[in-house]
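To close the section, here is one more complete example, presented without commentary so you can practise reading it yourself. The ligand is pyridoxal-5'-phosphate.
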Amino acid sequence: MEQRCQCGEPIEFEYQKGEVRKPGSVWNRYREFYGFDISESYSLGEGDTSLTSLNKLSSELGIELFAKNETTNPTWSFKDRGTFLGVQQAAKNDFSKIGTVSTGNMAVSVAAYGARFDLDTHIMVSKDIDKVKLSQIGVYGPKIYRVDGDYGDLYFRSLEVGKSKEVYFINSDDPYRVEGYKTIGFEIAEEMVPDHILIPTSSGGLFRGIVKSFMELKKSGIIQRLPEFTAVQGEGCSPIYYAYKEERDEISHVKEKNTFAKAIANPYPPSGNEVLRKLKQLDGNCVSVCDGEIISSQKELASEGIFAQPAGCVGIAAAKKLKDNERIEEGEKVVSIITGSGLKVRSGEFKGSQITDLNIDELETI
Ligand SMILES: *Cc1c(COP(=O)(O)O)cnc(C)c1O
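Output:
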């Protein structure tokens, strides 16, 4: 199960053609769009989230704005769609150990599915992770490592160590993870093909999955045109946005991580160059939004009944910006992906997770 090309770029499954087979779960309806078999055993009911019209914001902006509300997934973020596929394929390929590198939603998601599939689960978090987050991961009982080192580098180091230790690291843009995220695009397209889709972007895995789903639908003749795809980053950690703005083909490693949208603060996104290529190929767009814009958007979303975490709100902030500079036109249909819940769940009980403090150079001791 190769995860990256020798050239350093991510690996991607071949583009599929298919038809949507109704009714059924997402894994059943879209099965023809997968080049491998998917079993529904151990599914926790990923996806089939609602596309909710945001009435107040729509009339304020003069557009038709919708929220693809991913907060209702089994662990309250879209990550579950990709985690389920990744963990399932790791188990099918006889891995007894899985892992991930994350401080937030992905750690929680992989910990949950690791428990569900009964696998030995290794979660690498950053050294300064707060207690509430730690307990939200710890409740599922994985092995937790607090690692001292750069988060961008940890992605690559974990894949190396995973190879030698036979741990399948289902990181942010793992090929199966990206395949799982396609279901978001398929679900949206069952209801409409919007003019714009606004995608909170960190590693780039989510962006790639959504773009791939629409390209496959077009290739299959199910839709005739693609939406315009916008990657949205948080000002203060926006390496993809910087490269896009300067018309570079490659991202550079940013040092600072100063955004309120912590869940999308990746200083060296592993799919960053691929996102840039897709933006160029499809004439997409990239914007960054500041903390003030994110906080107002969070309140506005709440006024429509949806409580999202800061990273989940950046698309709403971007919608305003893009309407202001006329990249989004009057009356257009816009979908913002609300990637994760704002609920600060009361921390769960520790199920006796073993917590180890490591320096990034000591990773092979896992
Ligand atoms: C992971 C995550 C993202 C970004 O996804 P990538 O695939 O890393 O680009 C956006 N929002 C939230 C809430 C997330 O947890």
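Once you have examined the tokens, check your reading against these statements. The two ends are 20 Å apart (CA to CA). DSSP finds twelve helices and eleven strands in the chain.
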